[in-house]
Structure formats: structure tokens, C-alpha cells
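C-alpha cells please, single chain.
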Amino acid sequence: MIRIVPLKFQQAGRQYNFNALALELKAGDKVIIETDRGRAMATVVILPYDVEESKAPDGLKSIQRIATEEDLAMAETNTAREKDAHRFCMERIHSRQLAMKLVRAEYAFDGSKIIFFFTADGRIDFRELVKDLAHHFHTRIEMRQIGVRDEAKRVGGLGICGRELCCCSFLTQFNPVSVKMAKEQGLALNPSKISGQCGRLLCCLGYEFETYKGLRKGMPKCGKKVTWQENECNVTSVDVLRQQVTLRDGKGNCCCVTMEELRTGQASQPTTDEETSGETLSTRLNKERPQSQRQRTGKGQKTGQGQKTGRGQKQGKQQPARGQKQAKKTSDEAEKPKEKQNKQTKNESPEGKSQSKRRRRGRRRPRSGNKPGPGNPGSNQPSPNKQGE
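Here you go.
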């Protein structure tokens, strides 16, 4: 039996199996190992487990020892020196005018070499840059070109969900992501919403892809025609998680039906909440408007203020209903006798009589059309000549 323990070099790096020998290890311990690139420090992922020698991986290497305080102090010193190496390399890149983006500089555990990670669109001739770095640091220099996803993993950051990026927290390897995954989940194909910090499609699109793929089996697609309650309807929308589809018949009525109801062809009984509301939202077609609520419009008629009501007429306000007209008439009739009574009371008073007589006298006009006067033959007053005589 061989004791195997998984180790990792970074927070979300890949895991490698090593021989734990007889060391007592637990999750989170720092150990020193020997790799093809030299001595390095790694972290224990889980407790060691026993495996038969026939099932053990080939070329299995052993752990040298558990990291001491001196090893941890050396690792902290290398981390502080990485900032100076990164700053100096950036200065040389700008002076050389190289089309590359420096991501990070890492020291080996024993300080034997420095690894510079960078991104670029194509191949870069950095031979002169390596000479400048080797002359300044007096150690081995390694330039390593990485992709945009590896850049996001090493730099870190927050995603659109508000949490730390998956690639730098727990995701150990990158799986291929396609636009088909976003379409299957009904997401908007907006690059700003389905892309991550690296500019590629979000890794989380693949987490629920298989679930959506399994739930969508047997569900009709949008635009497909189905039969529901002896009516031919079109599928307008599909809710995969709730297993519901929205249907529209030829009259324009819509309803929401579950897949179980669609298979059986019968609507389930409404719940207590639906009975109180008087209408089922998920199983019945929307009811048509009652006749009293319909707007009666003829040819060339339109409702609303300032709109046409006839062929050449315009109506400023909506006409009142018949019941309102009758109520207006009754109120007018009730007000008329009151006005008559008031007029009678005014006429009965002496002042009212005189005023009414004056008004009547002032309104009278002679039939001849000429005003009565002393010279007019039609007047009743005598002429001055007759008076003298």
C-alpha cells in the first residue's frame, strides 16, 4: 500500500499526487517537494489515503519534509522581491516598446530563477529584454506567455455576481464554454452580460447546462403549434424550471399550462387562492371582456377627447351614457318648478309688479313702426295747433 496525498501550488491551482511516506499530514499544511523545475513549496489539499501499488500513478515523487519556520520566512522574502522584479521589468518593456502585457513575476522557492508571465497577441522577440533582466538580477530568467483566462486567474478580481472569480477561488481547470449553453438556459446573448473579466464566456454557464438540457426534453419549442382543449394554439414562451408553457389561441387569448396538463389534455382543479380570485391563471384561457366594457365604435368613429366621432364631426369630450342623460333630465325637471315658484313670489310683491309692468310697457312698440309723438298721426296726443284752437 502507498499513501498518496494531493498537493497544490496555488490557491486554485491544479492538484498533483505525491507519496506522503510516513509523514503525519493534515489539510492546509505546507510541505517542501522536489519537482522537475526545482525545489518548491506546496499545500496539502486533503488527508493522505492508501492506494494499492498496482493502481498508483507512474513516476510518483515523494515529499521531502514538512516546511519549517525558515522555509516560511524565505517564501515571504521571495514574495516581497517579486514586486521589485515586476516594476523593473515593466520599465524595460516600455523602454524597448514591446507589444506585451506583463501579468506577474514569481520567484522560485530557492531563488534560482524568476518567471515572468505575460500576454500578447502574437509572438514577441524578447531576447534583448531577457539580457537586461539577467544583467540586473544575476539569476536565471524565464519568460512565459499565457492566455487571457490564465491572466484573470493570476490577477484575481470580482465577477458580475459580486463574488470572487471562480477561476481564482476554486476552479482548478478551464472547461470549454459555448454560446449554446447560454441559449439553452434562455439568457440574453449580450456580450457584456455573459462575458467575464477575461473577455471570454462565463465559466458558470456550464454549471447548470446539463440540468437545463435534461429539463427541456419533451417540452415544445417557441412557435410550435399544439392542441389544448380542442383549440389549436401557438407556444409563445417556455419556462424550463417551472415546467410551464404559455399558449395563445386564434382569438388572441393566452393561458399558462403545465407540461402535465398539456400531456393529459385536462386542466387541473384550481387551488383555494385561485377560486377566491374567480379565475385560474395557469389552466384557463383569459376571459373576453364583458359587453358593457367594450367601446362601441362605428365606421369613422373613435373614442377619447378631440377624436372623430362621425364622418365630419369632432367631439371634445366623451358622451355620457343613457343612464346619465336620464338622471340629468330628471334633475332639470325638478329644478324648473322651483324656478317658477321663485318667479311667482317675486311678481306677487308690489315692487315686483311695478317692475314687471315697467318692463312690459318698455317692451311695447307701435304696430306702425314709427315712434309715437306729437307730429305723428297715429299718436293719441293732440297736436299743439289743436290745443291752441
